[in-house]
Every structure is written in structure tokens, then in C-alpha cells.
Amino acid sequence: MPGLRDQYAVVGIGMTEFSRNSGRTTRALGVEAVRAAMIDAGLGAGDIDGMLSYHGNDSTTSPVIAGDLGIRLNFYMDCSGGGSSTEALIGLAMGAIEVGMCRTVVIFRAMNGYTEARIGGTGRQAPVFRGASVDVAMHGMHSAAQSFAPSFMRHMYEYGTTSEQVAHVKVAHSKHASNNPRALYPQRMTVEDVVNSRWITKPLHLLDCCVETDNGVAIIVTSAEHARDLRQAPAYIMGVAGRVNKEQPGGSHWSRGPISRVAGYYGAPIVFGQAGVGPEDVDVTGSYDAFTFTTMLQLEAYGFCAEGEGGGYVSSGIIELGGARPNNTAGGHLCEGYTHGIGHVVENVRQLRHQADDFCTGWAEGKHTYDYSEGGCRQVKDVEIAMNLGWASPATGSALIMRR
Amino acid sequence: MAEYLGVKVEILSNDPEHREFLEHAGQGRFVLQKCEDCARLRYPIGNACPFCQALGWSWEAVSGRGTIYSYQIVTHGIHPAFRGVTPYPVVLVELDEQRGVPTEYDGLRILGLLVDTLGQPEHEERTGIGLRVQVDFADLGDGLGLPRFRLSDEPAEHPVWQYTAGFARPA
Fold first, then answer.
1. Is B43 on the interface with A (CB under 8 A)?
2. What CATH code is carried by the domain that includes residue A244?
3. Is the pLDDT of residue B153 over 80?
4. Is the Cβ pair A157, B76 closer than 8 Å?
């Protein structure tokens, strides 16, 4: 993408409240989030002509959301997908604009992730075993936690990674969430809190797992040329990698290669190559944190630390506010709430604008205290480059690098 | 009618691969697909050879012996069939066949419930990476079976690793 680097930008962000009891439809959540992103960008219905969304048969499609808001679309696509979707759809939005199909694209995810379709699987399992369930479900593996656990356990075996080390991901994210008025779980946690919480599937404790949430989130992508006329400082897109895979015959991410090596291993050269920067140039990361382990494995895969050294890395303080490269500054899926990935992109846009909506009275003007005490600031100082690491499974990941 | 842990097993007529896999298991045979071009085995069930892309294949009986490569102890059951059997160990077994093929990181890694001699979930303290296992079959009725694993009487392949809180591998 050297030819497209910095040629597109995220210009609008919008969110509903995060809750475990929205009491409304995904249609209502999607409409509110998209509208909020339009207001943020200073765009009207006539200015939006593309829409992309992802779902797991649990949401409302683009034409319905657009229709409610009086938007006439020149392009839309609703695809099936998980937590690696947002970055991939940003790349698709750029392509759609580049070829002239549309000019400005909204990407949204709307889900009643707690009150309707829980990603963790509760209540969604077919009562009959058939087809490919012979390969996985009949052996007792049904949720994401259960699917990923063999990779996490093998990492502990191969590298001596401990639960206590990985718990630091939750500790860091909870620290960040304590400075996020929107966070569902703003209480600061300790390593002991995590390792003393009940087992879900060993090696995952309850507090190693994210928080299923009802919410809607939207972002708006347009050309850099158009972006400069809009309300907010653009977050320029330097590079993007979308749904990069490792080999997974039969959908089994544990079949080929080192099983604790995740797809980011293959995404890293794509996204860093486009952006012309390396991990050392990134000021803040937003990593899919369905589980504490997923953040650790992705930071390894993208070269923020060496393979196998993730346990030491995430427990070193580097990923905390005040550390060298904070991760998930809004609290992430572990603490802010589960958005299926898109919330991490929104937070990085806020960081790049220097407008993290923390408890600093001047945040909207970019004025922060940089005091990361509980109930204080969550803006990282002087952020220039932010990176997102998206995850669908150990076998599928996406990445995005943006700059001010 | 076939069922497993109280849940109906219904393999549709357009899915002969999964049906035959369970039929072989019902007769005490653990079979994998073998490519008729490159002769490599593959798992899970798929419709082409991931190594050479050939479509043709046949069933090949394998030893069902291997070593636990990774595992988990499921405490919070999700599927109705499994809520009543927690905690249960799901093991990822690397079969003796085709190890290190095509690269040193690859092998035939098979998921399965680890059960005791009575077919009940094995105890956690008898589960660990490095332990040797052999295939065991659950009877689903209607001529179908499901491969699972139980500990074999062979010595462990290497010092057994088990999850422990605070565990750190010696340098």
C-alpha cells in the first residue's frame, strides 16, 4: 500500500452506552451509534454513501440502519465475522472508495452481546450433534474459551508462562478502565483477584475472560482529501492487514505449525510493510482481548516482544498507562465492554486525537493531566502512531496502523 | 436413534464422510482420511488434501496411539450435553503416525475427551502433556461410535507437564 498510505482516514467515531441490559434492538443500537459517528465527523445523511457491517446472525443489516437514518447507499456489505473484522472492513472501505463505488463509508457493529446472542455460547448451541460437530463439539469444545485453551496451555508448557504473568493484562486493562467513565467494570483488579476467580476452563479463570456486552459502535472512513474538510483531526491510515490466516485444515487452528503462534505472525509483515514503520514506532496498541492470553499472543506475533516472552512482557508494566507502550487504554473487552473488536479502533482514534474521554475536565480540547491515578487521565502523552491487533481465532487476525 | 450424552446424533445423508467416520468407530476402528495421491493422512475431516489438493481419498485405520500435546480442564460447561459432566479434560493428542510432517511443527493432532476405564471423564491429576494415550470408543447406538482417549499403560513420552498455579519452567 505505499501508494495508499495516509490517503485514507477515520474521521468519525460513535458509540452507544455499554450495558448488560440494553432493552432495545440491535437496530436501535446501530442507528444510535452510526448517528453519533456522523455527528462526530460533521457529516449529514447525504454525505454517507457506503456502509459495512459484520455479524454472527445476531444483528441488523446496513440497508435497515441506513434506511432509518435517511441515508441512500451506493455500496454496502454485511459479512459474517468476528473480532478481526473491523480492520479488514476498513481495508475494504478504502478499496470501495478507491475504485469509485462510493465516497464515505460507515462501518458499524451492533449487538446485544449479553441479552441476546452470547459469543460465549450459552444458549446458542444446537440441541443436535451433526456434521462438523463430530470434529469439535462432540469432544466437549463449544465456546471460544474452550476452542483457544489448548493454544494457551501449550504456551505455558513451552515457555513457562504463568497465570500470574498473564493476569497482568487484566490488571492493566482494569487500571485503564478505572479512568473511563463508560467502562462496565471500572474497578481496579489485582493479579490475586484474577487467579482467585473461578475456573471457566483451565487455564482460563473467569477474570481472564471478557465481558459480554450490549452495545453499538461505528466509525467512518473517507479519503484524506475529504477528511481535511471535516470536523475532527483525521486519523490517517498507514497500513492495514485483513483476516490473515494461518493454515487451518478443517477449521482446526491447532493442526498446523506451533499452535501458540497466531495469525498475526503472518499479518505483521503486511501491515508494517505498508506503513513503513515497525513495532518500536508504535506509541499505543489496541489488541483484541477476548481473553488475557489473546492480547499476549498478539503482542508476540506482531513483534512487540519475542515469541515465548509474552508472559514477561505483559507483566513488565510496559502495557500499562505510564508504561512505554500502553495497550487497550479504554479498558478493552476485559473491562470496558465487549464490542467484537471495533471499540479498540475507536479508542485508538481518540488517542490519536488526544481526546481520550477520561475524567480530565479538558479532554475534549485535548487537555489532560497525564495523572493515571484511579478516576483520572487515560490519554497517553504525545501519541503519534497507534496500532490495532484484531483476532477472530488463533488462526485469523487483522491489523491496522494509524497516525495523527 | 444415535445419541451422545443424552443429545441426538443425526448425520445428514449428504455428509457421508462424518457418517462413515462414526460408523468405523462404532466397529472399533479409528480411521483418518488418506490422500490417494500423496498418501498423507489428514484430520479433521475435509474435502481435499491440504498438502496436495487432490480430491480422492480413502479411509485408513490408524493406531489410535499418541501423546497428549495440550489439554484443558473444562469447568464451566456450555453445551447441554456437557453441563452434567464437568469438570472434564479435553485433550489434544498428537498421533504416532505422521509426526513432524510436513514440518517439525506439524502432526496429526486429534481432539478428544480423556476418559477413565469406565468411560467417565478422567481426573485432572491424571491428565498432562506428555502422557501416552490410546483411543477408546463411546457407543452412540445405531451402529455409531465416537473416538475418545484413555491413558495407555506405556510410560510417558517425556516428563509430564501439568498446569499448576504459579508454575514457571526452570531455566
1. yes
2. 3.40.47.10
3. yes
4. no
